[in-house]
Design brief:
Layout lengths: L2 H5 L10 H22 L6 H30 L6 H27 L2 H17 L4 H6 L2 H4 L1 H10 L4 H19 L6 H66 L3 E6 L4 E4 L1 H7 L3 H4 L4 H5 L6 H12 L9 E4 L2 E11 L6 E10 L1 H37 L7 H32 L7 E4 H18 L3 E6 L6 E4 L1 H17 L5 E10 L2 E8 L22 H8 L5 H11 L3 E6 L5 E8 L8
Parallel strand pairs: 7-9
Antiparallel strand pairs: 1-2, 1-5, 3-4, 4-5, 6-8, 9-10, 10-12, 11-12
Helix pairs in contact: 3-4, 3-5, 4-5, 5-8, 8-9, 8-10, 9-10, 15-16, 16-20, 17-18, 18-20
């Protein structure tokens, strides 16, 4: 058969033609598929399938050789040794017919039987293909090795010894029939070849068995991993859907940023708050997110600081977003395994209405406080007139009542003053007025204001000035005095036994500090973060305000005044250990008003 003509179409002008190359490639695939279909055998046992496939390959190879040999033998009948050529031709035809039958038996019946018949036919043909002398001690001795080697390929490994024994018996019988001694060396060689073939075949079978075991284990592992992956993907899909549903149902605006501060997720509520489409929010950078024309520069910076440096930024800052006021909070997102920060999630809440209500409340408090101050001052003035006896002397009982009136009016005036200060600070109307202050006067004025109250409670007020403190300071005397009085008054309120120590000391070349230490009830550790909040006192608010008095504005005002002066305030305390408030302020040559 002209394979080139079969593979390449006859109408192709050039072998380099692309269409011809593709046609040849297709035909080669067809030939290969035909050959594979010819030699493949289906079997549930992989070893049996392998051996039967090997037998088909050998049969195919021998069939090709026999098909070539038959015409050659028949065409050479008129040449030398026509009888031998005829014998070879007939033997070839017999072999070809035998191969056809064995091939059919191998495909549709039993593999071992086909292999034994095949090897028996081969040995039969070999036995009659040469003279007895050549079979016993000549060239045919080597041909008997072929069935032995073939046995290791198409039968179990031990079958090599069977055919080694059969080959030895055949040459022994033939040698005896012609009165020759059997070739023992050849017989031993057959068994040596059988041993080598057995070892090779056994090793191959063992390796294939191990490989199948490994493949089976790998297949099982792949199945298990595939099932686990499918389950994980299902769980992740369900979890993702659940999280998305939760995110969409949250009324607050939520946006998630990665480590590069690029948004990876945002909910519809944020789109409504910011008036930015959800599609635009997906993948938006932090800079682009805050660079909206309606956002003031201060609010832009607050949001960026909060997300980029959440540890150093203000907690829950209020930012202006167009005509809205939003409260922002941020939390870091961590890898559950490595605990590495992989991003952050920001939550924005619309507090526009609450802010408006707070402004209304502050305005109301300011107005009411101003209105209360006038009648309270009038009451205080009349009480002082009565106490001084302008309208006549008072008896002891009348004097006691007048003093109680003055004490309570003074207390009310202090509360009203706190409310006014709080309202002014919230409105940003309170400012500091720097002036030169005598350092000693701060503590002298404190004693004038607090000595009587401290003494009446049976406590001791200790005031000290550090040797390294300058004689003069620059600051707002009124606000510094207010800080000292509020801190001392707070210590007095919560101290029943012991003393209150107030000291002024230098921290370094650029700072000085006020320290107020008491021996009072102390503050629980979990309450310390909240002591500077407005309208709040440590422990239970209702109980402490009823027992100790006050409305919880003193420390809040102190903190805001300290921050107004670019200072810091800290507190250390413990239940039953008293409290220490430390105010650190800048020591400057000039202080500008806020």
């Amino acid at each position: 058969m002209d394979w080139e003509m079969f593979v390449q179409p006859t109408n192709c002008d050039s072998i380099c033609c692309g269409e011809c190359f593709n046609a040849r490639k297709t035909n080669l695939k067809k030939i290969n598929a035909w050959i594979q279909n010819f030699i493949e055998v289906s079997s549930s046992d992989p070893d049996d399938q392998r051996r039967r496939r090997n037998l088909n390959i050998i049969i195919l190879g021998m069939a090709v050789l026999l098909i070539i040999q038959i015409p050659i033998s028949l065409f050479n009948l008129n040449n030398i040794d026509p009888q031998d050529n005829l014998f070879i031709g007939l033997a070839s035809i017999f072999m070809l017919l035998s191969m056809t039958g064995i091939y059919w038996l191998n495909r549709v019946k039993e593999g071992n039987l086909s292999s034994y018949i095949f090897l028996a036919v081969v040995m039969l043909v070999v036995s009659f293909s040469d003279t007895p002398e050549q079979i016993a001690n000549g060239r045919s001795l080597f041909v008997f090795m072929i069935p032995i080697v073939m046995a290791s390929l198409i039968l179990q490994a031990y079958s090599t010894f069977i055919f080694a024994a059969v080959s030895s018996v055949i040459i022994g019988i033939v040698a005896t029939s012609i009165n020759q001694s059997p070739n023992v060396t050849a017989m031993l060689s057959y068994f040596l070849i059988a041993l080598i073939s057995w070892m090779s075949s056994s090793g191959l079978q063992s390796a294939l068995k191990d490989l199948r075991t490994i493949n089976a284990d790998l297949d099982q592992i792949v199945i298990e991993r595939t099932n686990e992956l499918a389950d994980a993907l299902t769980r992740e899909r369900i979890e993702s859907g659940r999280n998305q549903a939760i995110l969409n149902s949250i009324a607050d605006g939520v946006i998630v940023f990665d480590k590069q501060h690029v948004a990876t997720l945002a909910n519809p509520a944020l789109s409504e708050l910011t008036e930015i489409p959800v599609q635009t929010l997906q993948g938006i950078s932090l800079d682009n997110f805050v660079q909206v024309k309606s956002i003031p520069q201060k609010s832009q910076q607050s949001i960026k600081d909060l997300i980029q440096k959440s540890e150093h930024s203000e907690i829950n800052p209020r930012v202006e977003w167009g005509d809205k006021v939003l409260s922002a909070s941020v939390a870091d997102v961590h890898d559950s395994k490595t605990q590495e920060t992989i991003g952050s999630v920001a939550v924005f809440r619309d507090i526009t209405q609450e802010t408006q209500i707070e402004k209304m409340k502050d305005n109301f408090v300011a107005v009411v406080s101003h209105e209360l101050r006038t009648p309270l001052n009038a009451i205080m003035g009349h009480a002082e007139i009565l106490q001084e006896g302008v309208h006549g002397p008072l008896n002891e009982k009348q004097l006691s009542v007048t003093q109680r009136v003055m004490v309570n009016v003074s207390r009310l005036l202090s509360m009203v003053g706190d409310l006014l200060n709080e309202a002014q600070i919230r409105a940003g109307k309170l400012s500091v007025k720097p002036e030169i202050i005598q350092t000693a006067s701060l503590l002298e004025n404190l004693r004038v204001a607090m000595d009587k109250a401290v003494t009446d409670k049976g406590l001791e007020l200790i005031t000290t000035i550090g040797n390294d403190m300058p004689e003069e300071l620059i600051g707002d005397a009124q606000r510094l005095q207010q800080i000292l009085i509020n801190l001392t008054g707070n210590a007095l309120k919560f101290t029943e036994i012991g003393s209150i120590a107030v000291s002024l000391n230098r921290v370094d070349d650029e700072h000085w500090k006020i320290e107020v230490k008491d021996t009072g009830v102390g503050i629980a550790e979990n309450e310390l973060p909240f002591v500077f909040e407005a309208f709040r006192q440590a422990n239970n608010l209702e109980f402490t305000t009823r027992q100790y008095g006050g409305i919880g504005l003193g420390l809040s005002i102190v903190k805001q005044l300290v921050e107004l002066m670019n200072g810091e305030i800290q507190v250390t305390s413990g239940i039953g250990k008293g409290s220490t408030f430390t105010v650190v302020l800048p020591l400057l040559k000039e202080m500008k008003g806020a």
